[in-house]
Design brief:
Helix 17 crosses helix 20, helix 22 packs parallel to helix 24 and helix 24 runs antiparallel to helix 28. The strands form 6 sheets. Strands 4-3-5-6-9-7-8 form a 7-stranded parallel β-sheet, sandwiched between helices. It has a 6-stranded mixed β-sheet with strand order 16-17-15-18-19-20. A 4-stranded antiparallel β-sheet has the order 10-13-22-23. By secondary structure, it is of the alpha/beta class. The radius of gyration is 31 Å and the shape is globular.
């Protein structure tokens, strides 16, 4: 192993090389050592000069590529290949066969579903990196680099200090007049001022969006080196020659003293960010937006340590009112808005554990958002007597005849690295050999994170920090998606690996812009089972249980570790692990308790499952299992929605479809099911009366009581169409937060549902309500046309037509947009259905 790779000390390497026939150089990325060694020995006589290979062999074939990462398996194959002319053995051949089998097994991944890094919940970048329609942006170094794979019209990246500089060369050769550039405060302080200076000298039209988030977030939340404030940045860029400077903040009032800023700096709220950017892109030359909002992850850390005010405010979504349109995800770009599967389709809910209280999701145009003031998430097991954890028997721990390999998989930001660190410290306390290799990449916010933990009797027993192919003893799958990735599967082997997988379906960033994204839980389970065998596979609903017991999903990973340890899958003593948790110094008692609950779950799962049940049961919502259930649930709903006659109209169409399908396509009820679900969806449109009823005559209040505790008050985020203001830039209705008095108004309004559709219905005269009533009649006519020409050959088309209302989601302008797309698809399918009928008649 070379002590200093450049410059390579010539005398030592020449002495080393004397008498050798073959030298294999293993180095990542560029061939620094290889090129120098070849240069040193270039003039050696051929009789004594060794063959030197590394990146390529003598024939120019790839051996250890400089692109990507080098794995133990790649290096092992390269060494075996060079040794073969001197020596081989059955053991070497067997190992090569295992590696080859692994490569074949993983050549075609069974699951194409990946956890791609994303901004943290509440991250300032969710808003700051947006650009107005018609504009584009450039990226640089920092978390904002992730915009290059998001739908943010952001391209390219540069080294630190080069942000925006490519525009100096590009601007002369494009019709685009202006670009935005994202620049973090850490990069700005490091060398970003050079890029601003260059663009001023280049006389280009460009707006630098300098995000002041008070932390170097990409590499773990370190403070910016040196002193840097928003006024400092404003003064520096003005000194460089920037005349147009705007400070944008979620709290602009904190910059109430203009005297600490240069003259003519403006201060605006982030709610007006789109309009601000549209104005800035018309400015000649270089302009600057200083976007002031603290890093979400740093906020979370400071709030936990009492260093920052934690607003006594949370968001809750009434899933009965929610339409599942996803506008809240579009507005917030936030991973804490997660799916909720219900009898009436996929809705939304807030993950209270990961929410960092940015509240941008409330801007989604929907009346389902409730602001809870003063409440905090309820621990479901808080009322239960705590078990005697000391009574749990101690397990037999695995031996260390050979290094023991543990591969931890999880989601960035949930404490995967912490679990690896705890294991590493605990092994160190027992004087064991241990290595911990964390693979986190770009801080992996919301992305795939793995930790390779190798434990041995002595440090010298470990020859590589990365777990080799097919060598893992335990896979602690804190996230199933990462556990099912190709690279993770490559570390597993049937008969050796025991995989303990968290069955929780944690969404990926793809859900934000694809509200219909399905989580391939069965495929992931199958791919892991096929790799480790049924005897090596186990899953536990760790996130749900840990959150219920501890009140926060951050307890999941310690729960998983306790579960695995109790099963005898971790070769470290209980005392060492407890001491490591203590030395970590963060949430010591909570972490010990999460570990203890995990142990109990492995020893006595029934007790833990019972403890994790909600203390107060809601009346169970009926879930349809048959066609009869689907119809009956919806018939009863429509009676409550309007009256018996209205529900009978629904039954008449469903029964007509059922009769036609039974007669013309025996053995199938797909069309009847589709009509039963989606004719109901159109009939139960959510007007003002229905929204009021869904708040006051359902289990909404019980859901709130089950989710929160404390002295809380409810506020409602609404945009009443008759008297809400419109956004001057978009023309869309603007939401406003209303007090608890609205609930009383809802109770009164719900009583007037009988006016729906009559001349006394003041809400029914709006274009949206007239359209909703028209769609009901159009759907009835379309379905009767379909069943009038139904045959097996056009059955699938008929089902697709009946399912069109699934795409009509949301309220107001959001619903208009979805409706427009749905009607285009309906007309296309209907034309195909009619054309197929004409062809059949002609034949």
């Amino acid at each position: 192993k070379i002590g200093m790779s450049w410059p390579l000390e010539p005398s030592g390497v020449r002495e080393f090389a004397k008498g050798l026939e073959d030298i294999l150089i293993v180095e990542e990325k560029r061939t620094v050592v290889e090129d120098q060694l070849k240069a040193h020995m270039f003039n050696w006589d051929e009789a004594i000069r060794p063959s030197i290979v590394g990146e390529y062999d003598e024939a120019g074939n790839w051996m250890l590529p400089s692109v990507g990462e080098l794995t133990p398996a790649m290096i092992a194959k390269a060494i075996a290949g060079r040794l073969e002319r001197f020596f081989t053995s059955e053991q070497i051949r067997d190992r090569l066969a295992v590696l080859e089998a692994k490569e074949k097994q993983l050549a075609k991944p069974k699951v194409e579903f990946h956890r791609v890094p994303h901004f943290c919940s509440g991250c300032p970048h969710n808003t700051s990196t947006n650009v107005p329609e018609g504009s584009r942006a450039m990226a640089g170094i920092g978390c904002h680099y992730m915009t290059t794979w998001m739908d943010r019209r952001t391209d390219t990246f540069t080294q630190m200090g080069g942000e925006g500089v490519p525009w100096i060369g590009q601007s002369a050769f494009t019709d685009t007049d202006h670009v935005f550039v994202n620049l973090g405060d850490g990069t700005y302080f490091h060398s970003g001022t050079l890029a601003i200076r260059a663009c001023i000298a280049g006389k280009v039209n460009i707006t630098f969006k300098i995000l002041y988030n008070d932390a170097v977030a990409m590499t773990g939340g370190q403070p910016v080196d040196g002193t840097l404030t928003v006024p400092d940045i404003a003064k520096q860029v003005r000194a460089e020659g920037v005349q147009t400077i705007t400070v944008v903040s979620d709290e602009p009032e904190k910059w109430s003293d203009p005297g600490i800023f240069p003259a003519d700096v403006t201060f605006e709220h982030r709610d007006d960010f789109d309009a601000i950017q549209k104005r800035m892109r018309t400015v000649e030359g270089v302009s600057v937006i200083i976007y002031d909002q603290t890093c979400a992850a740093e906020k979370r850390r400071r709030r936990k340590r009492g260093l920052m005010v934690d607003p006594p405010k949370r968001i809750f979504i009434n899933d009965a009112v929610c339409e599942g349109c996803g506008d809240c995800s579009v507005k917030s770009n936030c991973l804490s808005v997660i799916p909720k599967e219900t009898e009436f389709g996929r809705k939304r809910q807030i993950d209270q554990s990961s929410c960092n209280k940015d509240f941008s999701c409330v801007k989604g145009f929907c009346p389902s958002f409730v602001t809870v003031h003063g409440g905090k998430p309820k621990k479901q097991a808080g009322t239960a007597a705590e078990p005697d954890f000391d009574a749990i028997p101690m397990p037999a721990l695995p031996g260390l005849e050979r290094p023991y390999d543990i591969l931890i998989t999880g989601v960035g930001g949930t404490g995967v690295v912490t679990i690896g660190a705890l294991l590493g410290m605990a092994a160190h306390l027992e004087d064991k050999g241990v290595t911990v290799l964390d693979q986190t990449g770009l801080a992996q916010k919301g992305g795939a994170v793995t930790a390779h933990v190798r434990i041995a009797r002595r440090p010298q027993d470990i020859f590589a920090v990365r777990i080799a192919a097919g060598s893992t003893n335990l896979v602690l799958g804190c996230d199933s998606v990462v556990a099912g990735e190709k690279t993770t599967l490559g570390k597993m082997r049937r008969g050796l690996t025991h995989a303990i997988i968290n069955s929780n379906k944690t969404i990926t960033s793809g859900f934000i812009h694809n509200p219909n994204q399905q989580f391939p839980a069965d495929d992931i389970e199958r791919s892991i089972r096929d790799t480790v065998g049924d005897e090596g596979y186990e899953q536990v609903d760790a996130t749900r249980i840990a959150t219920a017991l501890m009140g926060d999903s951050i307890a999941t990973n310690l729960f998983m570790l306790g579960y695995a340890w109790q099963q005898g899958q971790v070769p470290i003593s209980f005392e060492a692990l407890m001491r490591a948790i203590e030395l970590n110094g963060v949430a010591i008692e909570a972490n010990r308790k999460a570990f203890a609950w995990g142990r109990l779950a492995a020893h006595d799962p029934d007790t833990v499952l019972k403890a994790a049940e909600p203390p107060t049961e809601l009346a169970p919502r009926r879930v349809a299992k048959t066609l009869a259930d689907i119809v009956e649930i919806r018939r009863k709903f429509l009676v409550e929605y309007q009256d018996t006659a209205y529900a009978q109209r629904y039954l008449d169409l469903v029964n007509a479809v059922k009769a036609a399908e039974t007669r013309n396509v025996p053995g199938s009820d797909a069309l009847t099911q589709a009509v039963a679900r989606y004719f109901f969806k159109l009939m139960a449109y959510k007007d003002e009366y229905e929204v009021a009823r869904l708040y006051t005559q359902t289990d909404f209040q019980q859901q709130i009581a089950q989710t929160f505790e404390g002295d809380y008050k409810l506020h409602f985020n609404l945009a009443p169409p008759l008297f809400s203001k419109r956004d001057p830039n978009t023309g869309e209705l603007m939401k406003k937060e209303y007090g608890a008095w609205v609930f009383s108004a809802f109770k009164l309004l719900a009583k007037f549902k009988g006016l729906r559709g009559s001349w006394l219905d003041v809400f029914g005269y709006t274009e949206e309500r007239r359209t909703e009533r028209r769609l009901i009649g159009e759907y009835e006519a379309m379905v009767r046309e379909v069943i009038g020409a139904l045959v097996p050959e056009n059955h699938a088309l008929g089902v697709s037509l009946a399912e069109i209302p699934e795409q009509i989601r949301g309220y107001g302008h959001v619903k208009e947009r979805h409706l427009e797309a749905a009607l285009r698809k309906r007309d296309d399918l209907l034309n195909r259905f009619r054309f197929a009928g004409e062809q059949r008649s002609a034949a």
